[in-house]
Structures are given as structure tokens and as C-alpha cells.
Amino acid sequence: MSEPAFSDKPIPNETGLKSSLCLQGERVSFTGTLASMTHTEAAGLVVQNGGTATDHISRQTTMLVVGEEGWPLEDNGQPSVKLQQAEHWAARGVDIQVVNESQWLALLGLNEHRDQVHRLYTPAMLSQILGLGVPIIRSWARAGLIQPVKRVHRLPYFDFREVSSARRLSELLDSGVPSRELEESLKKLPSVRRGYERPLEQLEILTHHNRVVVRDQHSLIVPRTGQRLLDFEGVQAEPESTREANPVTAIQFLMKQEEPVSPPGDWLVEGCRLYDAGRLHDALNAFRQAALRTPESSDVHFQLGECLYRIGHTRAALERYSIAAENDPDFLEAWTQIGCIHRELGEFSSAKAAFLKALELLPEYPDANFHLAETLLELGRSDQAQKYWKEYLRHDSRGPWADIARERIEAVSAGIEFDKPHV
What we know:
Blueprint (H helix, E strand, L loop, with lengths): L4 E2 L20 E5 L7 H10 L3 E2 L9 E4 L14 H10 L6 E4 H8 L2 H7 L2 E2 L1 H8 L3 H10 L6 E3 L2 E5 H15 L4 H9 L2 H4 L4 H10 L4 E4 L4 E2 L6 E2 L10 H6 L4 E4 L13 H10 L3 H14 L4 H14 L2 H14 L4 H13 L3 H14 L4 H13 L3 H12 L6 H14 L10
Parallel strand pairs: 1-5, 2-3, 2-4, 4-5
Antiparallel strand pairs: 6-8, 7-8, 9-10, 9-12, 10-11
Helix pairs in contact: 3-4, 7-10, 8-10, 12-13, 12-14, 13-14, 14-15, 15-16, 16-17, 16-18, 17-18, 18-19, 19-20
């Protein structure tokens, strides 16, 4: 049976635009959510470049573009209708080229838009764009569901596509779609067929969430319970250098064992496990035990601050974030949290100082730029704030914060008075 032509080679003109009508004669359709623009905007670009944009797949369709935000899956977990239609026509000998969004943008020479598809985001930015709490994003990272692409002064940056993929798979599982059906659907997607197995790994982690076993330097751990398990698999230990570069060397899925290990060998790990499970008061006690044993640890004090803040002890949280920053003056997220709490408490000058400290460490840090701009607005310095809103927009053009930043800039430029922010 024939299949759509999933492109794993350069498509015509991908390395450069030779004609302003590079889609001349092409009938193009889109499926899934585009990461760089709306479907309407994409259809307009097709027309501008000599092609015809279509809402449906037919015998005349020549190209199907797969969006790179999340996965093109229906609510029942099946591949999108358009992907199924492309397979239908391919089986009948119709040549339909299936390309991902990045390939299509390269064909049009839209490198700026292509870069946006692959842009990296901080946990706070992802929280605003995807509607997920920052604690959820951090817990997903701890479980290995998402992996930071890089860290700058401890601050993790994530690939937006990986996080949105995890969210979509989580939503489908929560809605009752069987994991086996999801796995089969994922295997039909172009990128997975080309060998990209990360969504299958994510599905496995989500499916076995209560039985995830992570191998650290010593043994196997069930993150949700903190228990260590005997390893009967005979897996050879990784070289020491590999373990240091990547402490989690393997993820396996074993039957759940009931026997807990007590007391925990690492109170910080135990606290994070309890925190991720929503047991905040138990987590607080674990973090306090960790602080007694390692009072110099910035990570411990930061987690204490996170826990205290969620419980509602704002001033106590501020104190812990401050200790974290004192122990490690380069701790970006600690300085940002200090600024956010001062701002929440109406202490705008102190908030400004904390955000400026964060920007000394990383001038392009999006979160600090946005929060500093909003703080300056509170202080009546909207003219100074514009610089920081504009810097934020260099890193995010799509989320609620980006919308706010654009509205603020327009209002200030037009001399319009507006209410003080409550972000």
C-alpha cells in the first residue's frame, strides 16, 4: 500500500528562494497547529507565493504541511483527518508531499519564522503560553517527561514543541484515549516515521506515571514514591564521566513495589517528590530536613521558598529565596522570585532592584525584562519601561505576556493612560 511522500530530503528551493512564486502550481493544505502563525496567515503566504490554499485534501492536493505545535491528533487520538486523507489518496497513486512546518518555511525563505518554531522558553513563559502552572512544568522536567535544552545560571530553557507535545498527550490520556491507540497514531506521524522517537518516550512516561523507574548513580528509583528497587535486569553501570554529564542514564518501567525506604537518603529528592504529588506540608517538612543537613544549598532554600509560597506564607518564602540568592548570587530564578514577591507586596523599589540584579546576570532574560517593565509602570516610569517590553518581545511574540507588552508599548507611544498592571 502506498503512503504519502514523507519528506526526509530537501524539498525544492529549500536552500534559497529562487523565485517569488516558489509555490507556483502547488495546492497546499495544513494540518495540526502551526507554531509560527495561524492557518489563515499561512494560507495567505501560499497565495502570495503562487500557490492555492485548500481546506480539504483531494486528488488535486500536492502538499500537506504538518504544524509543529503539539501533534496533529484528533480528540479520539487518531491522526488528523487530513493526514488520513493523504494516506487514502497516496494509496491510490496520488503524489502528495507531506512536509513539516520548518521545511515549508525554509521553502518560502522565511528563516525568521523558522527560528520562531525552534525558539526556547523558560518555565514562566511556557506557563503563560500553554496555561500550565510552573510547578507542573518543573515536575514534568523532574520526571523526564520534558528535558531542558540548556541551562543558564541554573535557569532551564525548554523546546516549546516538546512541552506542547507532552501537554497534548497528557490531555488525550486524561480524556480516556487508550495509550495503545495513541502509540499507533504517533507511529503514523511523519516525524516519528523519520525516526524521531521522543513522543513515544513521552507517552510511555505518561502511561506508566505511577511506575516510572529512573536509574540514578546508585540504583533504580520510583520518583512518585521515592523507593529504591533491586535491579534484576543486570544493566551494566555507565562510565563515571557519563553519569556526571547526565545523572539519569535510563528510564525503565517495572511493577510497583510497596516497600518504601525510610528514612529518605536525600531529603531534597523526597521533598520534590512530595511537592509534585501535591503534599505541600509533607514536602515542607522534607525540605526543612534537607536545610538542616545542607544549610548552604541554594537549591534547598529555593524549594523551601516555592513550597512556602504555595502554602501562602509569602514573607517566609521571600526570606528563603533571599537565602538562596545569598548562597548563590548567580541564581537567576531566585532573584526573579524575590522581585515578584516584592512587587506582589507593593514594594516596587525592592522589586526593581531584584529584577535589575537578574538582568545583570543575563540581560536577555525574558521573565526579568517583562517583570521589570511592569514594575517601572507601577512606579510611574512608563517611558523607561518600553525598553524592557521591547526586549521581552524579542523572545516571545505569541503568549499573553507578549500581548500585554504590545498593548503597553502602543498605549505609552500614543500617550494613553491605562490602569496599573496586575500580572
